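// run 5 | inverse folding | seed 20
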């Protein structure tokens, strides 16, 4: 299917967690399609700022306007229910409708204790991550959907990491990312007789502001970092997942996707959507290719073995990948 002209003119969207990363890219892409986009988050020029990051919701709203839409910045702490209630009261008063709701609130990077087993992690830190990344999504949908129900159609998007049901390598991180997939499904069941579609969507290897900073590059010279990490060659801008969501929102058949965990790479190919450089990165195909190269190698590196160890539990519950998972398991056992 190819939607060459994605138009959301006249639609009202709200991206919760639009300050940076995927949220900012999604807001910009919805703006490119002509939508009015409420850009919410805590990092504001007039309020709380992340001490480690410079981005603000006002900058995102300005980028939405530059892209061709109407961007509206609203400083909101989505863990505070009264603030969320006021947010949707404002949307109702301003526009009387809400067509697209994107839950992209995260804030868990600094809280993820990678490399620690579940019996070693700090429980309070993990619960704080779940509050930021799951509880906020529930609160936002709880108060946004009543307004959506008054319209003739709508789309709810839960942004996650990975469209799979296997393990993501750290207990609380995994719980957060799988929880929003389940949330999208659960909402779709309760919305089955309504004109609202609920889905979960994952981007691929995202070239977020933080990732670019990590590699010491900018978007203009991002390819310079491929020498440090060959997988980076298959990365994508945050705008790409936004364009995939915009195409889905414009699709009159989007209800057929209800409750599903979708990937940016599958949607972009389905709709003919491309990144800013004309590419269509497919993260799953790249990983499969990388895994096959390692499995055919006589001298795997430590990084190769680490990738296999990460990938194997991700394939749990995926019957179409049973053979690959078994081959990885055998390879790792032999390589020890």
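// decoded
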């Amino acid at each position: 299917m190819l939607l060459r002209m994605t138009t959301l003119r006249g639609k009202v969207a709200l991206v919760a967690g639009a300050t940076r990363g995927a949220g900012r890219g999604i807001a910009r892409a919805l703006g490119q399609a002509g939508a009015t986009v409420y850009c919410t988050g805590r990092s504001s020029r007039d309020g709380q700022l992340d001490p480690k990051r410079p981005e603000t919701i006002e900058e995102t709203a300005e980028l939405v306007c530059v892209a061709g839409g109407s961007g509206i910045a609203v400083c909101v702490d989505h863990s505070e229910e009264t603030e969320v209630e006021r947010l949707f009261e404002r949307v109702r008063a301003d526009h009387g409708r809400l067509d697209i709701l994107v839950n992209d609130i995260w804030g868990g990077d600094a809280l993820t204790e990678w490399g620690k087993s579940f019996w070693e992690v700090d429980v309070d830190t993990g619960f704080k991550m779940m509050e930021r990344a799951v509880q906020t999504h529930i609160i936002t949908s709880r108060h946004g959907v009543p307004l959506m129900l008054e319209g003739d159609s709508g789309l709810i998007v839960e942004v996650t990491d990975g469209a799979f049901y296997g393990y993501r390598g750290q207990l609380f991180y995994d719980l957060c990312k799988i929880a929003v997939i389940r949330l999208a499904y659960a909402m779709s069941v309760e919305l089955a007789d309504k004109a609202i579609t609920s889905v979960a969507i994952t981007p691929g290897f995202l070239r977020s502001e933080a990732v670019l900073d990590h590699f010491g590059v900018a978007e203009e010279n991002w390819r310079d970092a491929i020498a440090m990490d060959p997988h980076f060659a298959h990365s994508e801008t945050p705008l790409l997942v936004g364009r995939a969501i915009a195409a889905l929102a414009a699709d009159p058949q989007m209800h057929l996707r209800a409750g599903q965990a979708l990937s940016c790479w599958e949607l972009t190919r389905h709709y003919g959507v491309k990144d800013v450089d004309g590419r269509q990165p497919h993260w799953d195909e790249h990983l499969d290719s990388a895994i096959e190269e390692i499995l055919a190698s006589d001298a795997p590196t430590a990084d190769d073995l680490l990738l296999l160890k990460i990938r194997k539990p991700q394939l749990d519950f995926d019957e179409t990948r049973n053979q690959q998972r078994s081959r990885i398991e055998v390879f790792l056992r032999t390589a020890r």
